[in-house]
Protein backbone atom coordinates (compact mmCIF):
# COMPACT_ATOMS: atom_id res chain seq x y z
CA UNK A 1 0.00 0.00 0.00
CA UNK A 2 1.38 3.38 -1.02
CA UNK A 3 2.14 5.69 1.89
CA UNK A 4 0.44 9.08 2.05
CA UNK A 5 2.51 12.09 1.07
CA UNK A 6 2.60 13.30 4.68
CA UNK A 7 3.91 9.90 5.79
CA UNK A 8 6.58 9.93 3.07
CA UNK A 9 7.65 13.42 4.18
CA UNK A 10 7.79 12.27 7.81
CA UNK A 11 10.07 9.35 6.88
CA UNK A 12 12.37 11.67 4.92
CA UNK A 13 12.51 14.09 7.85
CA UNK A 14 13.24 11.33 10.37
CA UNK A 15 16.13 10.09 8.22
CA UNK A 16 17.47 13.63 7.87
CA UNK A 17 17.28 14.21 11.63
CA UNK A 18 19.16 10.98 12.28
CA UNK A 19 21.94 12.11 9.93
CA UNK A 20 22.21 15.48 11.66
CA UNK A 21 22.12 13.93 15.13
CA UNK A 22 25.22 11.87 14.31
CA UNK A 23 27.19 15.13 14.10
CA UNK A 24 25.92 16.50 17.44
CA UNK A 25 26.71 15.70 21.11
CA UNK A 26 25.00 12.56 22.35
CA UNK A 27 22.70 14.44 24.72
CA UNK A 28 21.08 16.11 21.69
CA UNK A 29 19.48 12.75 20.89
CA UNK A 30 17.96 12.80 24.38
CA UNK A 31 16.67 16.32 23.73
CA UNK A 32 15.06 15.38 20.41
CA UNK A 33 13.39 12.32 21.90
CA UNK A 34 12.10 14.40 24.81
CA UNK A 35 10.47 17.07 22.66
CA UNK A 36 9.13 14.71 19.99
CA UNK A 37 5.56 14.51 21.39
CA UNK A 38 5.05 18.28 21.09
CA UNK A 39 7.09 19.21 18.01
CA UNK A 40 7.08 18.33 14.33
CA UNK A 41 10.01 16.56 12.67
CA UNK A 42 10.68 19.73 10.66
CA UNK A 43 10.99 21.73 13.89
CA UNK A 44 13.47 19.22 15.31
CA UNK A 45 15.52 19.41 12.10
CA UNK A 46 15.62 23.22 12.46
CA UNK A 47 16.78 22.79 16.08
CA UNK A 48 19.52 20.41 14.91
CA UNK A 49 20.85 22.92 12.39
CA UNK A 50 20.75 25.71 14.98
CA UNK A 51 22.57 23.61 17.61
CA UNK A 52 25.26 22.67 15.12
CA UNK A 53 25.90 26.36 14.41
CA UNK A 54 26.19 27.03 18.17
CA UNK A 55 28.66 24.23 18.90
CA UNK A 56 30.75 25.10 15.85
CA UNK A 57 30.84 28.70 17.08
CA UNK A 58 32.22 27.59 20.46
CA UNK A 59 34.96 25.60 18.72
CA UNK A 60 35.87 28.39 16.28
CA UNK A 61 35.60 31.39 18.58
CA UNK A 62 36.20 30.21 22.17
CA UNK A 63 39.81 29.20 22.96
CA UNK A 64 38.60 26.81 25.67
CA UNK A 65 37.05 24.54 23.03
CA UNK A 66 39.46 25.05 20.13
CA UNK A 67 40.59 21.40 20.11
CA UNK A 68 37.08 20.04 20.53
CA UNK A 69 34.90 18.23 18.06
CA UNK A 70 31.16 18.83 18.19
CA UNK A 71 30.49 15.27 19.36
CA UNK A 72 32.85 15.78 22.34
CA UNK A 73 30.71 18.27 24.30
CA UNK A 74 29.58 16.94 27.66
CA UNK A 75 26.74 18.15 29.93
CA UNK A 76 29.35 19.63 32.30
CA UNK A 77 30.88 21.71 29.52
CA UNK A 78 27.50 22.83 28.21
CA UNK A 79 26.37 24.16 31.60
CA UNK A 80 29.69 26.03 32.04
CA UNK A 81 28.96 28.21 29.01
CA UNK A 82 28.44 31.69 30.51
CA UNK A 83 25.78 34.28 29.86
CA UNK A 84 28.52 36.44 28.35
CA UNK A 85 29.42 33.59 25.97
CA UNK A 86 25.79 33.42 24.83
CA UNK A 87 25.53 37.19 24.40
CA UNK A 88 28.70 37.13 22.30
CA UNK A 89 27.14 34.33 20.28
CA UNK A 90 24.14 36.57 19.58
CA UNK A 91 26.50 39.25 18.32
CA UNK A 92 28.29 36.67 16.18
CA UNK A 93 25.01 35.59 14.58
CA UNK A 94 24.51 39.03 13.04
CA UNK A 95 27.18 38.05 10.57
CA UNK A 96 28.89 34.69 10.58
CA UNK A 97 31.59 33.88 8.04
CA UNK A 98 31.69 30.74 5.99
CA UNK A 99 34.77 28.61 5.48
CA UNK A 100 35.67 30.50 2.27
CA UNK A 101 35.08 33.95 3.73
CA UNK A 102 37.86 36.54 3.76
CA UNK A 103 38.07 40.16 4.85
CA UNK A 104 37.69 41.29 1.24
CA UNK A 105 34.75 39.02 0.43
CA UNK A 106 32.13 39.67 3.10
CA UNK A 107 29.41 38.52 0.73
CA UNK A 108 30.53 34.94 1.33
CA UNK A 109 29.24 35.02 4.92
CA UNK A 110 25.74 34.62 6.32
CA UNK A 111 23.87 37.71 7.48
CA UNK A 112 21.07 37.23 10.02
CA UNK A 113 18.38 39.75 10.81
CA UNK A 114 16.67 40.04 14.18
CA UNK A 115 14.13 37.37 13.31
CA UNK A 116 16.81 34.83 12.37
CA UNK A 117 18.84 35.57 15.50
CA UNK A 118 15.77 35.25 17.69
CA UNK A 119 14.95 31.83 16.21
CA UNK A 120 18.45 30.49 16.83
CA UNK A 121 18.54 31.77 20.42
CA UNK A 122 15.03 30.38 21.02
CA UNK A 123 16.30 26.96 19.83
CA UNK A 124 19.19 27.22 22.25
CA UNK A 125 16.89 28.21 25.12
CA UNK A 126 14.65 25.21 24.42
CA UNK A 127 17.70 22.95 24.46
CA UNK A 128 19.01 24.32 27.76
CA UNK A 129 15.55 24.39 29.36
CA UNK A 130 14.97 20.74 28.53
CA UNK A 131 18.36 19.65 29.90
CA UNK A 132 17.84 21.69 33.06
CA UNK A 133 14.31 20.42 33.74
CA UNK A 134 15.48 16.85 33.13
CA UNK A 135 18.37 17.45 35.58
CA UNK A 136 20.98 16.62 32.96
CA UNK A 137 22.57 19.99 33.74
CA UNK A 138 22.31 21.95 37.00
CA UNK A 139 22.91 25.47 35.67
CA UNK A 140 20.88 27.15 32.95
CA UNK A 141 22.73 30.19 31.59
CA UNK A 142 20.39 30.44 28.60
CA UNK A 143 17.49 31.32 30.94
CA UNK A 144 19.27 34.61 31.73
CA UNK A 145 19.59 35.66 28.08
CA UNK A 146 16.86 37.90 26.67
CA UNK A 147 15.57 37.30 23.19
CA UNK A 148 16.01 40.22 20.79
CA UNK A 149 12.84 42.23 20.28
CA UNK A 150 11.19 42.16 16.90
CA UNK A 151 9.74 45.25 15.38
CA UNK A 152 6.07 44.89 14.56
CA UNK A 153 5.70 44.42 10.82
CA UNK A 154 2.61 44.78 8.73
CA UNK A 155 1.42 41.48 7.32
CA UNK A 156 1.90 41.45 3.57
CA UNK A 157 -1.26 40.35 1.81
CA UNK A 158 -2.99 41.04 -1.47
CA UNK A 159 -5.87 43.49 -1.74
CA UNK A 160 -9.13 42.39 -3.35
CA UNK A 161 -8.31 43.92 -6.72
CA UNK A 162 -4.84 42.37 -6.61
CA UNK A 163 -6.33 38.93 -5.98
CA UNK A 164 -8.54 39.33 -9.05
CA UNK A 165 -5.60 40.53 -11.18
CA UNK A 166 -3.43 37.70 -9.88
CA UNK A 167 -5.96 34.99 -10.74
CA UNK A 168 -6.60 36.56 -14.14
CA UNK A 169 -2.87 36.44 -14.85
CA UNK A 170 -2.60 32.81 -13.70
CA UNK A 171 -5.40 31.97 -16.12
CA UNK A 172 -4.22 33.99 -19.11
CA UNK A 173 -0.44 34.35 -18.71
CA UNK A 174 -0.61 37.54 -20.80
CA UNK A 175 2.14 39.35 -18.87
CA UNK A 176 4.59 36.47 -18.83
CA UNK A 177 7.67 36.34 -21.03
CA UNK A 178 7.52 34.44 -24.32
CA UNK A 179 9.47 31.56 -22.78
CA UNK A 180 7.24 31.47 -19.70
CA UNK A 181 4.14 31.47 -21.91
CA UNK A 182 5.33 28.28 -23.62
CA UNK A 183 5.21 26.48 -20.25
CA UNK A 184 2.02 28.28 -19.27
CA UNK A 185 0.12 26.73 -22.19
CA UNK A 186 0.72 23.32 -20.58
CA UNK A 187 0.12 24.29 -16.94
CA UNK A 188 -2.53 27.05 -16.98
CA UNK A 189 -5.39 24.87 -15.73
CA UNK A 190 -3.28 23.19 -13.04
CA UNK A 191 -1.87 26.52 -11.85
CA UNK A 192 -5.33 28.12 -11.77
CA UNK A 193 -6.69 25.23 -9.72
CA UNK A 194 -3.80 25.45 -7.22
CA UNK A 195 -3.91 29.22 -6.80
CA UNK A 196 -7.69 29.33 -6.48
CA UNK A 197 -7.55 26.52 -3.94
CA UNK A 198 -4.90 28.21 -1.78
CA UNK A 199 -6.58 31.62 -1.96
CA UNK A 200 -10.00 30.06 -1.36
CA UNK A 201 -9.13 27.87 1.63
CA UNK A 202 -5.97 29.27 3.25
CA UNK A 203 -4.21 25.89 3.21
CA UNK A 204 -0.43 25.73 3.56
CA UNK A 205 1.67 25.03 0.48
CA UNK A 206 2.82 21.73 2.03
CA UNK A 207 -0.82 20.75 2.51
CA UNK A 208 -1.57 21.68 -1.09
CA UNK A 209 1.19 19.59 -2.66
CA UNK A 210 0.31 16.69 -0.36
CA UNK A 211 -3.24 16.39 -1.67
CA UNK A 212 -4.31 13.18 -3.37
CA UNK A 213 -7.18 12.76 -5.84
CA UNK A 214 -9.07 10.84 -3.15
CA UNK A 215 -8.78 13.84 -0.79
CA UNK A 216 -11.14 15.91 -2.95
CA UNK A 217 -14.79 15.53 -1.92
CA UNK A 218 -17.10 17.28 -4.39
CA UNK A 219 -20.19 15.96 -2.60
CA UNK A 220 -19.40 18.18 0.37
CA UNK A 221 -17.12 20.68 -1.40
CA UNK A 222 -14.19 19.87 0.84
CA UNK A 223 -10.61 18.61 0.83
CA UNK A 224 -9.10 16.28 3.40
CA UNK A 225 -5.71 17.60 4.47
CA UNK A 226 -2.99 16.51 6.86
CA UNK A 227 -2.07 19.27 9.27
CA UNK A 228 1.00 19.71 11.45
CA UNK A 229 1.26 17.00 14.08
CA UNK A 230 -0.52 14.46 11.89
CA UNK A 231 -4.01 15.89 12.46
CA UNK A 232 -6.44 15.21 9.59
CA UNK A 233 -9.18 17.76 8.91
CA UNK A 234 -11.63 18.70 6.18
CA UNK A 235 -11.39 22.21 4.77
CA UNK A 236 -14.28 23.48 2.67
CA UNK A 237 -14.13 25.50 -0.53
CA UNK A 238 -16.63 27.77 -2.28
CA UNK A 239 -18.33 27.60 -5.66
CA UNK A 240 -15.56 29.49 -7.51
CA UNK A 241 -12.94 27.01 -6.33
CA UNK A 242 -15.23 24.05 -7.04
CA UNK A 243 -15.68 25.07 -10.67
CA UNK A 244 -11.98 25.32 -11.55
CA UNK A 245 -11.07 22.30 -9.41
CA UNK A 246 -13.65 20.10 -11.16
CA UNK A 247 -12.26 21.15 -14.53
CA UNK A 248 -8.72 20.35 -13.45
CA UNK A 249 -9.60 16.98 -11.87
CA UNK A 250 -11.30 15.93 -15.10
CA UNK A 251 -8.16 16.82 -17.05
CA UNK A 252 -5.93 15.15 -14.42
CA UNK A 253 -7.68 11.80 -15.05
CA UNK A 254 -6.11 11.69 -18.50
CA UNK A 255 -2.52 12.20 -17.31
CA UNK A 256 -0.21 9.24 -16.79
CA UNK A 257 1.73 9.86 -13.57
CA UNK A 258 5.17 8.47 -12.82
CA UNK A 259 5.55 5.64 -10.36
CA UNK A 260 4.99 6.84 -6.81
CA UNK A 261 2.78 9.75 -7.88
CA UNK A 262 -0.27 7.81 -9.04
CA UNK A 263 -2.54 9.38 -6.38
CA UNK A 264 -1.09 12.90 -6.42
CA UNK A 265 -3.62 15.63 -7.24
CA UNK A 266 -1.16 18.16 -8.63
CA UNK A 267 1.57 16.94 -10.98
CA UNK A 268 4.67 18.59 -12.38
CA UNK A 269 5.45 18.69 -16.09
CA UNK A 270 7.38 15.47 -15.49
CA UNK A 271 4.13 13.92 -14.20
CA UNK A 272 5.53 13.59 -10.66
CA UNK A 273 3.92 15.05 -7.55
CA UNK A 274 4.67 18.77 -7.65
CA UNK A 275 6.98 20.01 -4.90
CA UNK A 276 6.81 22.92 -2.47
CA UNK A 277 9.67 24.80 -4.15
CA UNK A 278 7.98 24.55 -7.55
CA UNK A 279 4.75 26.05 -6.16
CA UNK A 280 6.72 28.83 -4.44
CA UNK A 281 8.34 29.68 -7.78
CA UNK A 282 4.96 29.69 -9.54
CA UNK A 283 3.44 32.09 -7.02
CA UNK A 284 6.46 34.37 -7.33
CA UNK A 285 6.32 34.28 -11.14
CA UNK A 286 2.67 35.27 -11.38
CA UNK A 287 2.71 37.74 -8.48
CA UNK A 288 5.62 39.72 -9.88
CA UNK A 289 3.54 40.59 -12.94
CA UNK A 290 0.68 42.13 -10.93
CA UNK A 291 2.12 43.11 -7.51
CA UNK A 292 5.83 43.85 -8.13
CA UNK A 293 6.00 45.99 -5.00
CA UNK A 294 4.99 43.11 -2.71
CA UNK A 295 6.93 39.94 -1.97
CA UNK A 296 4.09 37.46 -2.44
CA UNK A 297 4.68 33.85 -1.36
CA UNK A 298 2.29 30.93 -0.78
CA UNK A 299 2.16 31.97 2.87
CA UNK A 300 1.02 35.45 1.79
CA UNK A 301 -1.85 33.80 -0.10
CA UNK A 302 -2.75 32.16 3.21
CA UNK A 303 -2.60 35.54 4.98
CA UNK A 304 -4.80 37.03 2.26
CA UNK A 305 -7.41 34.35 2.84
CA UNK A 306 -7.28 34.82 6.61
CA UNK A 307 -7.73 38.56 6.22
CA UNK A 308 -10.72 38.18 3.90
CA UNK A 309 -12.36 35.57 6.14
CA UNK A 310 -11.97 37.75 9.22
CA UNK A 311 -13.33 40.82 7.46
CA UNK A 312 -16.37 38.86 6.30
CA UNK A 313 -17.12 37.05 9.58
CA UNK A 314 -15.46 39.05 12.37
CA UNK A 315 -14.90 35.68 14.08
CA UNK A 316 -11.25 35.33 15.10
CA UNK A 317 -11.90 31.84 16.50
CA UNK A 318 -13.30 30.67 13.17
CA UNK A 319 -10.23 32.07 11.37
CA UNK A 320 -7.92 30.28 13.83
CA UNK A 321 -9.79 27.01 13.34
CA UNK A 322 -9.86 27.17 9.54
CA UNK A 323 -6.18 28.15 9.32
CA UNK A 324 -5.21 25.38 11.73
CA UNK A 325 -3.69 27.59 14.43
CA UNK A 326 -3.40 25.67 17.69
CA UNK A 327 -3.44 28.89 19.70
CA UNK A 328 -5.92 31.66 18.88
CA UNK A 329 -3.38 34.18 20.20
CA UNK A 330 -1.27 33.40 17.14
CA UNK A 331 -4.21 34.42 14.97
CA UNK A 332 -4.90 37.53 17.05
CA UNK A 333 -1.29 38.62 16.70
CA UNK A 334 -1.47 38.33 12.91
CA UNK A 335 -4.77 40.17 12.61
CA UNK A 336 -4.41 42.68 15.46
CA UNK A 337 -4.77 45.66 13.13
CA UNK A 338 -8.03 44.28 11.76
CA UNK A 339 -9.33 43.66 15.28
CA UNK A 340 -8.60 47.26 16.18
CA UNK A 341 -10.37 48.37 13.00
CA UNK A 342 -13.47 46.42 14.01
CA UNK A 343 -13.37 47.83 17.56
CA UNK A 344 -13.26 51.37 16.19
CA UNK A 345 -16.19 50.64 13.90
CA UNK A 346 -18.24 49.63 16.95
CA UNK A 347 -18.03 53.05 18.64
CA UNK A 348 -21.38 54.27 17.29
CA UNK A 349 -23.21 50.95 17.19
CA UNK A 350 -24.77 51.28 20.65
CA UNK A 351 -27.08 54.28 21.19
CA UNK A 352 -27.57 55.53 24.72
CA UNK A 353 -30.82 57.38 23.89
CA UNK A 354 -33.44 56.64 21.35
CA UNK A 355 -33.60 59.07 18.44
Explain briefly what this protein structure is.
By secondary structure, this protein is mainly alpha-helical. It has helices at 5-21, 26-35, 41-61, 75-80, 83-94, 114-133, 160-172, 178-201, 205-209, 239-252, 276-290, 298-313, 316-323, 328-334, 336-345; strands at 95-96, 110-111, 216-217, 222-226, 232-236.
Give your account of this protein's structure.
The protein has about 350 residues and is mainly alpha-helical. It has two domains: about 140 residues, Tyrosine recombinase, N-terminal domain (DNA polymerase, domain 1, Orthogonal Bundle), CATH 1.10.150; about 190 residues, hpI Integrase, Chain A. Helix content is about 55%, strand content about 5%. Strands 3-4-5 form a three-stranded antiparallel β-sheet, with no helix packed on it. Strands 1-2 form a two-stranded antiparallel ribbon. Helix 7 crosses helix 11, helix 8 packs across helix 10 and helix 12 runs antiparallel to helix 13. The chain is globular, with a radius of gyration of 24 Å. The relative contact order is 0.08.
